[in-house]
Amino acid sequence: MSIPLLCIALLAILLISLAFTVSMARGKSKMMYGYKTDPEDRLYKSVRAHGNATEYVPIIAILIYILGTMPISMWIMWCMIIVTLSRYLAAAGLLLPKSLAKPNLLRLVGTLGTYLAALGLCIALFLKAVSL
Fold it and tell me: pTM of whole model > 0.90?
């Protein structure tokens, strides 16, 4: 099993699933463009979850892909796994609460995990680049 490819596949599934969630929420609300900025509105939460994932998933997938083409340490592999799980937690933290008006633990853990593990991937790639 290739952990890097599995992580990239899971990130792509997340992004496409969140896009589908936006489409479903648009159909249900009959709002084909825009959205109400109500932190309790399902469409608003779906758009934010998809937008948030769209901000992070592409660069994370690129980092994982590039690092996956090289021999990597176990800590880099763990960064790949943690950042992937963190993106799912962040999405859940945006979709599941009744309102986005208050912070929640899922979103906090997902965000912190994303920042730390993605930074780890950046450092790993930097170290690989300067050692070539």
Answer: yes
